[in-house]
Amino acid sequence: MKKRERPVLTNESVEQMFRWIRQSISLMYAHHKHPVPMTALIFAYMETFGKALGRTSVKDKVKKFIQTYMHGLCDALNQKRLGFNSDVYLDNKNYKIEEILGNFYRNGLTHQFWMKKGSALFENATPSARKEYLWIEFFNNQKRFMGINIDFLVRDFLNGINEYQNKIINDNNEKSNLSMAILEE
């Protein structure tokens, strides 16, 4: 019996897929009417692309994509002196940043259609709004995670997928990994 070859995306299909992703996120963002489904899509894409980067658990997939392609979020964590394994206070408990991103945001938005209790989204819509990627406050001598600014998240994600698309187009191994991640049966 002849072994069936795995399908591999063409450069044209990769370009079309990323164009559609950029257009859908940009359209939702331009009108600021759908921040929750837009953020759910962003985290779902991060998980899929993280899977193509070789990670298995949800939080590891999201973390891997962020570490590799979302330089703004990594810089924001560094500015707050936080890493993915740092503990922050959220919903009256300590959690690691990677748990908050993978569980509270990705799982909450994808499965419950809302962030899990204690997490939030905010934007630069008003002059008094916070103009930072992450909202972290001190509470009882602990860093308290308050939310993610969607204005920063969208720009960072779009920049990240541009970089990722270029890597896929120029690296057949990466193209094969993405193909397996999204075309597997």
Short overview:
The protein is an alpha+beta fold and 185 residues long. The chain has 7 helices and 5 strands.
Descriptive labels:
alpha+beta, three-stranded mixed beta sheet, two-stranded antiparallel sheet, 7 helices, 5 strands, 59% helix
What does this protein structure show overall?
- There is one protein chain.
- With 185 residues, this protein is α+β, with helices and mostly antiparallel strands.
- It has one domain (34-180).
- 59% of the residues lie in helices and 13% in strands.
- The protein has seven helices and five strands; from the N terminus they run H-H-H-H-E-E-H-E-E-E-H-H.
- It has helices spanning 11-31, 35-52, 58-69, 71-79, 97-112, 150-170, 172-183, and strands spanning 87-90, 93-96, 121-122, 134-139, 142-149.
- A hairpin with a 2-residue loop joins strand 4 and strand 5 (142-149).
- The longest helix is centred in the first third of the chain and has 21 residues, at 11-31.
- It is globular and about 55 Å long.
- The mean pLDDT is 81.
